[in-house]
Amino acid sequence: MTTPFGLVVGQRSPVQGGETTCGPAALTVARMLADPVVAQWIITGASAANAFGDLSGDSPSARFTAYERLVHRRVTRAAAPGGGWQLPWPRALGTPPWAVCRELETIAGGRRVRYRWVVIRGRSRTRQQEVLAHWARHLTPGQPGVLYVGHSWLPRHIVLAVPTDGGTVIYNPATGGVTLLDLTDGSVSWMAGSGWPIAWFAVAAVGATPSHTTV
Fold first, then answer.
1. Residue 205 forms beta bridges with which residues?
2. In a domain, 215, yes or no
3. What count of other Cβ atoms lies within 10 Å of the Cβ of residue 139?
């Protein structure tokens, strides 16, 4: 019997284990939502023999951090998740959007699913609103998306967006908080409490047909 894992508004979820691991933390949560074996191991420590190699941890938070570090190595090396090559990236600078796309593809269906990232920052406010609304419409429970948010000069944080029966929710790795996505004013002002109220990049599956949206 596996332990179910989900994102529920108002309930705490795992918190990122490092200062530059918001991306890997968001991707680890996406993996937990899609793979009950990974979720079971992180939550309880139980797994099939050798399923996680050298990973270990004596608590859910320690196991989450261990898996998060594995993801961080995978998304910053030259060998892309799922095969092929990608531009390697210094881990101290976080996670590049092209690597987020490749990792989400392996989570959402491998070569059958393609993700892309688009730039939001620098467009007119009207165009930003259009891009964010389009991004939200291309999220599904099995194909979540990611937003890069930050301040006026740089993207500084990554959050995960997942449609649920109660609406599309945002998982914030910095706090473990889960809130409802709100694009009613065409911005990410709902992230202001985290200090990063400006959207920079959006990542979503190409051609996804949503079953839930909140815009």
1. 115
2. no
3. 25
- Rounded Cα–Cα distance for residues 107 and 86 (Å): 17
Report the largest interatomic distance among the alpha carbons of the chain, rounded to a whole angstrom: 53
How does DSSP classify residue 79?
A: B
Please report whether residue 5 resides in a domain: no
134 is a domain residue: yes
**pTM for this model (two decimals):** 0.88
The residue segments making up the domain with residue 89 are: 22-205
CATH of the domain at 74: 3.90.70
Chain segment 83-114, per-residue pLDDT in tens: 675 555 555 667 888 889 999 999 987 667 88
The answer to whether position 17 is within a domain reads no
> Could you give the number of structural domains in the chain?
1
DSSP secondary structure string for all residues of 129-190? HHHHHHHHHT-BTTB-EEEEEE-SS-EEEEEEEEEETTEEEEEETTTTEEEE---TTSS-GG
| Contact of 9 with 178, CB cutoff 8 Å | yes
Residue-wise pLDDT tens digits, 105-160:
999 876 678 899 999 988 888 888 888 888 998 899 999 999 999 888 888 899 99
